[in-house]
Structures are given as C-alpha cells and as structure tokens.
Amino acid sequence: MTTTLDKTEGLGPAVAGAAPYITATFRIRRFNPEVAEEAAWEDFEIEIDPKERVLDALHKIKWEMDGTLTFRRSCAHGICGSDAMRINGRNRLACKTLIKDINPEKPITVEAIKGLTVLKDLVVDMEPFFQAYRDVMPFLVTTGNEPTRERLQSAEDRERFDDTTKCILCAACTSSCPVFWNDGQYFGPAAIVNAHRFIFDSRDEAGEQRLEILNDRDGVWRCRTTFNCTDACPRGIEVTKAIQEVKRALITRRF
Amino acid sequence: MKIHKYDTVIVGAGGAGMRAAIESTKRSRTAVLTKLYPTRSHTGAAQGGMAAALANVEEDNWEWHTFDTVKGGDYLVDQDAAEILAKEAIDAVLDLEKMGLPFNRTPGGTIDQRRFGGHSRNHGEAPVRRSCYAADRTGHMILQTLYQNCVKEGVEFYNEFYVLDLLLSEVDGVKRTAGVVAYDLATGEIHVFQAKAVIFASGGNGKFYKVSSNAHTLTGDGQAAAWRRGLPLEDMEFFQFHPTGIWRMGILLTEGARGEGGILRNKDGERFMEKYAPVMKDLASRDVVSRSIYTEIREGRGCGPEGDHVFLDLTHLPPEQLDAKLPDITEFARTYLGIEPYTDPIPIQPTAHYAMGGIPTNVQGEVLLDNTTVVPGLYAAGEVACVSVHGANRLGTNSLLDINVFGKRAGIAAAEYAATADYVELPEDPASLVVEQVERLRSSTGTERVTEIRKALQDTMDKNVMVFRTEQTLKEAVDEIAALRKRYKNVSVQDKGKRFNTDLLEAIELGNLLELAEVTAVSALARKESRGGHYREDYPDRDDVNFMRHTMAYREVDADGNESIRLDYKPVVQTRYQPMERKY
Asked: Which of A206, B15, B290, B495 has the greatest CB tally within 10 Å of its CB?
C-alpha cells in the first residue's frame, strides 16, 4: 500500500523559507498482532527537507498520515537511546541519521532492530537486553571505609575507561551482532562494554567477579570480532576493542 | 484493572526520581513508575555540570554559591532553600562520586571544576570554577550512575507506565495521598497503585514551545495531574530560554562551551556580551544572555540571510580542548549542521529549556496545597517541583544539583512518612477519571487532530510567551490557548488499539501541555513587571513593591463545570540578602 501526502506544511524545525524538499519513500516494516499475525512492508511517500532526520520523517508519517505507526523516541538528538532501528539494513539512531546521508533517491527501509522480539512496528522487547546489562554488575563496588572526600583518581586512570562511559544502552551494537542474532543467551556487546567501564575503573574492586561472569560460555568468548558493533555504535565507542580488552584481561588477569 | 500496594511510589525515573528511589528503597517498599525506560530520561541530556563549592581548583564557598543562586533568580528565590541547595551541594557531588560517577579530574586526582554562567567569586567579582563535570555529558553520567545504583539496590521499576492521575482522599476534612493511577503502554491496561507516600519526579513541560531543548516526552504530566486534583502551581510564568540552542532545531549546546572560553558574536563578529554584561560577559545569567541575543537580532545585527541567529565561536580554542571537554556538542554541530567547530562558528538561538515553576513544595519536598499547608504523603522534586531554589531564573548547573539534593530529601522524607503512616482508603472507583479519559479519546470520532493543535500551541507560545512579552502578546496567547482547548475536546486518534498505543498517549500529553500553557500565560499576564526569565516590554523594570512574591495559580471549577484560573500570591523567604539591582 502506498499512501501519499502532497502538502509540505507542518514540517519539523529545520525547515524555513525555500527549503529544497525532495520526495522520499519510506519502506517500513509494520507489525501489529492486534491486526495481523504477519509483519509486512508498507511504503509511505513524503515530501521532506533532506537535511531533516529520519525521526522527523517518521513523525511526519505518524502525525499526518498514519497514527498507528509506532516507535520509541524521546530526546531526538542521540543521547537517550530510544530510537535505535535498522535503516537501510544498518543499525542507527533515527534521530542522528539525516535523510540526505542515506540515499533518498531509493526507498529507505526502516525496520526494528534484530535479535529482540518485535512487539509492534519498530518497538522491540528490551527486557532481555537490560537483563544482560544487569547481570554484569554494572555498578561501582568498593570495600573498606569510605573516604571523607572524593576517591582520588588520576586523569590517566580516568581516561582508561572514558570511551565505554559514553554508552547510552540503545542496543544498536548488541542487535547488530550475528552471534546475538543466533543465540540470544550471549551477553552481547553492550553488556560487555558496561562491564569494561567498571573493570578498568581504578576505583573498582569487583573486576575479578565481572571477568568470571564474562568467562561464562555465553560471555566474551562468543565474540567473533566482526566489528558490526563498532560500526553500529552511534556514540562512536570502539566496542570491539573494548571486548578485546576484556578478553585480554581474562587471559592475563591484569586490568 | 490491577491494584498494587506499595509504601512509596515514585513517579518518574530521571535524576530526581532515581535519587529518591535509592533512598526510599532502603527504607520502604518502593515502586518507581516511569513512562520511559529510566536511562531514556532527559536528565541524560544535561551537559555542562553540577555546581558545588568544592574549592578543588580555586577558593570558593557555599555562601558565595547561595548568593549567586539568589541573584541569578532575581531575588525571587526562597533563600532558606537556596542555602540548603548550596550547602548540601558538596555532599551531593561526593555522594555521586562514591556511587561511581566518573567526573573529570584535576592533576591532583580530585574532581575537576569549570566556569559556568552566573557563578562568581565573592558576590560577583569574577567567574569562579564551581561546575563539577564529566566532559559535556555530565547529565548522562548522573543518569547512568543513578540507574546503576538503582540496579545495585534492587529498585523496582514499572517501565513505560504513564501516571495519569493522582488519588487524594479526604480524611476528617484533610486531603491525604492515597495513590496514583497509571496506564501500561505495552498492554493498555490501567493500574491503580495504592501508596502511603507518592513522589512526583516527572520532569518539565518544555514541549509547549516549538524551539525547545526538551525531549518530546517532556509534557508536564505530573504538574497536570496535580493541577486537575486542585493543587496549585507556583511561578509558572518563569520559563528559561537557554541562550545556545542549535539554530531552528533547539538542540542544547552547553553553557560549558562558554565556560571553556567560547564567545558569542553577531554578524559583525563583535563580542556583543561585553556591552550587556561587562564583568561576566558571555557567562552572565541565561536570561540576560538570551535577551541580549534577541536584542542583537532585533537591532539588525543577527547572522544569516534572515538575520535570525548569532554565532557561538569556538574556533580560537585548541581542537584538543574541544575533543576532551566538549566532544558531544561539537559532534552535534557536525551531525546536524554539517559544520566543523574547529574552524567555523556555530549558528545558535535561544531555546526553551527549563520550567522554574511547578508544584509548590517546602524544603522537605512536601507538596503544598496553599501557601503553608502540606498534603500529607505527597512529595515532589526536580523540574516538576518549585521549592523555590531557582526563583525567576535558574543558574546553569543548579538543576543537576537540585535533582540530587531535593531528590534525596524527598526520598528520605517520603519513606520516613510511609514508615509511620497508615494507608488512606482509595476513593470509590479510583480509576474512573483515567478510564473515562482513555475511552473518550479512543472512541472519539472528532475531526480535530493532535498534530495540528500541538503545532498551533507551540506556534503561539513561541510567538507570544517567549523571551519578550507584552500585555498584547500574552492576551493573544491566552485567547488562542482557550480556543485550542475547545478544539481539543473534539480531538480523535487513529490508533484504537491497546498495544503500545503512542497515538493515544500523545493526545493525552497534548491535553496536559494545553492546561499548563494556559496557566503559564495567565500567570505571565498578571505579572506586570520584568524579573529573571519573565520580561515584559511594557513593564521593563523589576517591581519589588508589588511583585516580590510567588504566583500561586489555582484551578477553579464552578457549579456548571466551567473552569477558570484563580491567581494568588505567596511571600518570598528572604534571609541574608536584600534585593539589589542585578548586574553582571
């Protein structure tokens, strides 16, 4: 089914004056078990400024054409992690992807991220993802008396785990991982990234415990170093490198 | 309909809600109801830092911080609350560090600090380094750290539960807290949570503006629920416009950029803030800087073909400094504008950012039903609340501080109350209001569309209730909002289903925004003076004789069911500081 809209009003904030609109087709994977058992592709043709975000396009479709189109979003600038989806076959945040950058000459495909159960349209069940996160003890563990003031940490020690503190738990990495697609028991890159964030924090004292958790059959050794996760990360975290560092720490027991 | 029973229920899982949850979970059986997964909350979008007079890099103390907060708020701040905020700031930062927050460090390994707008040494002498930060993702790190500690403490979350109503029961003539009613997004089911104590920590309402730094989900659901149950809203006319939003998009670029040395320039390349704030320059308070930007634009010195923005210039800063201290905002400029901040200035304009007003509370976080009486068992903290530590204008880095100080206080106070209080009987048919609201929207065949009304609301708010206001613009806004509220009664949604019906929830959120916009415009119309974030061109001076007082707005319903807004006023608590003319 193709639904068209020929008016250009009501666009997002990036539009004013003589914005060069283009006509783009969004081919969206729809699924609503209240309506049909099977998922199906649906095309929406819209006129839009190519400098706008894919999220703006999804809003335009939802707000002006089909209110049943369902997706998660909140901050709209790549910091809350709500709107990871598969756009033209690659995991991205809809709010950080500009239409001009994904070849709008051809239909743009949008579908839910893979490896997690689709609940409706672009909404997946995030619970297994967050459970894996919770399982790696994602919090600072210390022993002994607390200091009166802050714990000291050198700028170098702070820098050691800086990259992995950027994670927004959007699941773009985990749901791009072929190992995770085949076996949902695998902790997945995001959980390992968050374990890394604490294992390499000089203040933390539970590195050994986290390494044991990740030494499990569903832990880091399942990683096949395909780098999908690094490519998918909208925060630019070197995910594969972080996983390799955890593997190395398991072998050397030094971190 | 399902009924749950908890000692303490917290509404919202941003900074204030999770900080409260960490305390209340240790002391009482607690549930956190949140319309977003906790890590999606907008606390995560805060960038620049959290103020505390740690004095790690230069001389500083909490009294200076208190003064700056009071002055920043144009003396509408309750000074007892500001003193608590500034004193407890130090422990609030240290608490977070001990919970694991990865602050940037000084060469000596202590928490590093940087400059921020309105924060000064010795009562305005010069900018001071008071903002504790983690690059330009301090809010992200606070949100992550608090969620991590909620996991550690085993906090119980109900994710994607929208709280749509507050239940109050009258016992011996006293309104007491009975619980809340929530809508489960995944299933469409309605849940009643009976609780001895309820804490609203549901965030702001900045989505009634179009150019806004706020998330789509910041729709004032907590304020609106309290309002509909007859509780007042305080100082709603005070809304902060952050000076540096990305042009037209409104995405926040931290004040930390100016704290690191960034400069605002007009089309002639002039550093115009020197004219408006000779001492603090680009680091004057946000209301002053936003007004200065619009003055430049109005006087024809704006940039671009339409002269509708100015530049944030970072090009004189070393790329290494930008990469280390401002990696996210420089990335935003590249992603959304295609601009390289190493070499090119960034087009910016003020963006709707923060509600100073909200549900009135005392310093324990207890919600007030008039100027002095508390509602037993009801608490609020964070942007949803008005303590008031921000007065007429909040200082940058004081909101991340507010959520931690008053989130913690509310969490402890609520749990301690719940430990001794009894459950209040639920009102008869407790979910009726929500059921009626949801069913009406789901079955409506009305011709009005959510998107059109929302756009019209945002247009009138941007046009009429922005940085510059007059009697005429505010009257226009009041009339337009009233008309939009009428149209809203005839709104319908396309999605009639139960499963993840975000179409329906957006309609409900719009209803909340409309009510709060009306309170904002009506409160602004009545305040015939200029103070902090509320600037009236027809009354350009601050008027301490008539308006050194908080606005208290009440919803009134007459016998025929007609709604109106009644305005009353509450005295400002003044302790150490006499109002002075505000200069930066």
From this structure: B15
Residue B128 and residue B112: Cα distance in Å, rounded? 13
**Residue type at position B391:** G
Among B103, B112, B216, the residue to mutate for chain A (most A Cβ within 10 A): B216
Label residue A16 by pLDDT band (50, 70, 90).
very low
Residue B531 is given by DSSP the state: B
The string of DSSP letters for A145-166 reads: PPPSSPPP--HHHHHHTTGGGG
- B519 falls within a domain: yes
Under an 8 A CB cutoff, do A149 and B152 touch?
Answer: no
What CATH number does residue B300 fall under?
3.90.700.10
A116-150 exposure pattern, b = at least 16 Cβ within 10 A, e = fewer = bebbbbbbbebebbbebbbbbbbbbbeeeeeeeeb
Answer whether residue A5 shows pLDDT above 60.
Answer: no
Q: Residue A132: phi, psi to the nearest 5?
A: -60, -40
- Which value does ipTM take for this structure? 0.96
Backbone angles phi, psi at B231, to 5 degrees: -90, 150
Give the CATH number for residue A167. Answer: 1.10.1060.10
CA–CA gap between residue B192 and residue B169 (Å, rounded): 14
Phi, psi of B552, rounded to the nearest 5 degrees: -120, 110
Residue B236 lies in a domain: no
Q: pLDDT tens for residues B357-371?
A: 999 999 999 999 999
Buried b (16+ CB within 10 A) or exposed e, A48-64: bbbbbbbbbbbbbbbbb
- Across B39-155, where does the E strand assignment appear? 50-51, 113-121, 126-132
Domain boundaries, position A104: 2-124
